[in-house]
Amino acid sequence: MKDCRGILSIGVAVCGLLLSAGPAWSQGAGAGPYHVVNELKIGGDGGWDYMAVDPQSKLLYITRGNHVIVVDTAAGKQVADITGLHGTHGVVFSSDGVHGYITDGGANQVAEFNRQTNTIEKTIPAGTGPDGAVFDPATKTVWAFNGRSHDATVIDTATNTVVATVALPGKPEFPVSDAAGFIYDNIEDKNEIVKLDANVHTVVATWPVCDSPSGLAIDREHHRLFAVCDGGKMAVVDTESGKVVATPTIGDGPDAAGFAGGLAFSSNGGTGTLTVVKEDDPDHYTVVEDVATKRGARTMAFEADGSRLYTVTAEFGPRPAATADNPRPRPPMVPGTFEVIVVSR
Fold first, then answer.
1. Total number of domains in the chain
2. What is the value of pTM for the model shown?
3. Spans of the chain below 50 pLDDT
């Protein structure tokens, strides 16, 4: 994810979300304002990056420096720790219900692991600095987007071998799949989105979008992308034409995006807010909640139906004085204060 967007001890960053009461709205059965239902005090040292919910087990995987912790959110505790890594960033799950993949940017590799035992079974070489990743169900491939070499490594999950390396026009951020053979990815330093053909491993379109896009989500049914950007905007993009059809207002310092149940989400660590945007129709969107959150909570994961969302943060000490070598120092995390915030309707 975006550099200096999170609190990651190895120097590459990302970020989250959380909520308070907000207005009600009509969105079908079970919909309504989101609110915090629990704060899980997980603790442990080091920062964090991407996180993801296993769709089968419902366990929450959080990358933390040189390891990945596994949290049972129902029990409110960590239940496993995947070690032997160097600088973890993203976690994705294959459709076989058994295997998952971790981008290990510190070792320029992707680690395949068993979701039943939470142990690494194989490591696969990638480009330089693999960061964001996505599993494409149409081709059963994992795409690892390499932040430093500006390309994507394509892995066949049947053989766990690299089948292609795709050059990109700049630094990639969060990717998504439309599950029909196309991959989309934000190019942060060029203010663009690229569309990639997952079958032939090529870039087929490049579209201007907004300032420094980071998180990306997709509404597959209505062919819409949701890119969260600097400047307090979410860009809603047509996946066929690349046209920006709407730009609802979000908070400052967004990093993660999500879409479920007719709602788009932006977690804004700069202002400590979660913005919830209702899809009135594919070209019209209404901000229905902009809820106070904790600063530093920027990275986000959620259940597929949007019923429960998760974010993480910690307490921080005073910011160090700026130096010539580090003109924008980040405040240190207070040891043992790492927590998972559980949000629900």
1. 1
2. 0.89
3. 3-31
